């Protein structure tokens, strides 16, 4: 639980950066809403259509089910998606992105619908979304694949370090897809803060919303370290950044990129007006951990990120 608390705090800090940083956008311009290709994404499988059981041994690639008894009378299982995949099981709760999460815990019981998404980037600006719908039986740790859908994505904006924001239309909605190298903190159109640690974030914007709709997100990506006569400041305390085995080369750094996507429409507009911006949320030196802390209880403290001093 402590590791989860650390991740949550870092993600929320990243989302807060996106709200206050005001970094300049690097995207040259935003496409029109009507120019974004429309794609069909099927609804998740419905529980009423679920089979009674799935025999042990049925699997799909890069998704596993780990059983763990958390309580004496209640057995739970953890579904883990590898390779940057995002997984969602059953009904997606409010505040959770439709793309899902890297892992989720479920109570062992009836067979449930499951969706696994993966962003496949062949190169910056050329990508597709792979969506696998399946049935999950946690009692036998089995997964039965039903259908695979591949959605071609269009580029909405390009930012620094070849970071690209993708999207597609789904009726009156704009589905925004943002790659994630580590974790993304975001504020959804309802104003709720969330985070994801899988390979991408997908959130929809309703083009018919009366007062418009907006997404703000921020996450850290790898980039070249700018030459500096002084010693570069660290981004975060190492234990909050990445395991030692994933340490970056001396000429690389993790830097926060922010994304803002909004749609609005007046009575005079023939279609929703789309605006997309991508840019750095901090200067070349990154951000450092200050002496300020947040008390999480049980003697656990998390540094608050503040701009590096000049």
Strand content: over 45%
User: Could you tell me the radius of gyration in angstroms?
Assistant: 21 Å
Describe the oligomeric state of these chains in a short phrase. single chain
Give the low-confidence spans: 1-27, 69-73, 234-245, 287-310
What general outline do the C-alpha atoms trace? Answer: globular
The SS-based structural class is mainly beta
Number of discrete helical segments: 1
Portion in helices: under 10%
Instruction: Please count the beta strands (DSSP E, at least 2 residues each).
Output: 17
C-alpha termini separation = 36 Å
User: What's the overall average pLDDT, rounded?
Assistant: 79
The profile of the biggest β sheet is:
7 strands, antiparallel
Number of domains: 1
Strand order of the largest sheet: 3-5-6-7-8-9-12
Topology pattern, helix = H, strand = E: HEEEEEEEEEEEEEEEEE
Produce a short descriptive summary.
The chain is mainly beta and 310 residues long. It is built from one helix and 17 strands. A hairpin with a 5-residue loop joins strand 10 and strand 11.
Structure notes:
It is a single chain. This protein has one domain (2-307). The model is unreliable at 1-27, 69-73, 234-245 and 287-310 (pLDDT under 50). By secondary structure, it is mainly β. The chain is built from 1 helix and 17 strands. Residues 288-310 are annotated as: Disordered. Residues 1-27 form the signal peptide. Keywords: Signal. Residues 296-310 have a biased composition (Acidic residues).
């Amino acid at each position: 639980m402590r590791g989860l608390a650390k991740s949550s705090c870092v993600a929320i800090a990243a989302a807060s950066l996106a709200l206050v940083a005001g970094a300049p956008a690097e995207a040259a311009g935003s496409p029109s809403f009507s120019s974004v290709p429309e794609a069909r994404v099927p609804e998740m499988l419905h529980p009423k259509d679920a089979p009674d059981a799935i025999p042990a041994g049925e699997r799909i690639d890069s998704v596993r089910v780990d059983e763990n008894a958390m309580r004496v009378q209640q057995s739970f299982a953890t579904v883990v998606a590898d390779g940057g995949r995002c997984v969602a099981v059953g009904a997606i709760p409010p505040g959770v992105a439709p793309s899902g999460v890297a892992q989720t815990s479920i109570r062992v019981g009836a067979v449930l619908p499951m969706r696994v998404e993966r962003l496949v980037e062949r190169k910056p600006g050329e990508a597709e979304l792979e969506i696998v719908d399946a049935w999950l039986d946690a009692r036998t740790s089995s997964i039965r694949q039903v259908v695979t859908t591949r959605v071609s994505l269009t580029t909405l904006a390009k930012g620094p370090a070849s970071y690209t924001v993708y999207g597609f239309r789904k009726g009156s909605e704009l589905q925004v897809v943002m790659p994630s190298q580590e974790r993304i903190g975001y504020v959804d159109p309802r104003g709720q803060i969330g985070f994801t640690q899988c390979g991408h974030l997908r959130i929809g914007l309703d083009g018919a919303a009366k007062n418009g709709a907006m997404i703000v997100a921020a996450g850290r990506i790898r980039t070249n370290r700018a030459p500096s006569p002084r010693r570069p400041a660290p981004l975060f305390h190492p234990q909050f950044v990445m395991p030692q085995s994933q340490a970056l080369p001396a000429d690389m750094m993790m830097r926060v990129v922010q994304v803002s996507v909004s749609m609005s429409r007046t009575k005079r507009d023939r279609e929703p007006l789309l605006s997309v911006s991508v840019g750095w949320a901090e200067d070349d030196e990154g951000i450092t951990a200050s002496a300020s802390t947040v008390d999480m209880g049980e003697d656990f403290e998390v540094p608050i990120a503040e701009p590096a001093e000049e």
